[in-house]
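Design job #97: recover the sequence.
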């Protein structure tokens, strides 16, 4: 019983993250953020691979504010996709009341992986 509960914790956490992502995509405001930087998180690795971090920003012209966003880990070479297809923006779903709550939609890059 104990091992079952321990085994269900990662599955439950992944399910909760997916539900949160779906909620942002359904109810959040979609903005196009400009990609500023792609970095490699060298102090973290799984099976010898380091994840990529995508940093982007959005300027709200109405109030003159600049917002910065980062995604969760990307496990494929995002720099090659960005360079090959000349992609400069990424969709970000934000909470209308609090831009600190957001989801950077990196799933748009997955269609370029097969090419």
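Job complete. Output follows.
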């Amino acid at each position: 019983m104990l091992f079952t509960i321990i085994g269900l914790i990662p599955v439950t956490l992944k399910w909760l993250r997916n539900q949160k992502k779906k909620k942002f995509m359904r109810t959040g405001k979609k903005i196009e953020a400009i990609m500023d930087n792609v970095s490699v998180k060298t102090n973290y690795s799984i099976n010898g691979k380091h994840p990529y971090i995508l940093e982007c920003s959005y300027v709200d012209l109405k109030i003159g504010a600049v917002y910065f966003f980062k995604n969760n880990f990307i496990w494929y070479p995002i720099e090659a996709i960005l360079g090959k297809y000349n992609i400069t923006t990424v969709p970000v779903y934000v909470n209308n009341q609090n831009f600190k709550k957001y989801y950077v939609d990196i799933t748009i890059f997955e269609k370029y992986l097969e090419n």
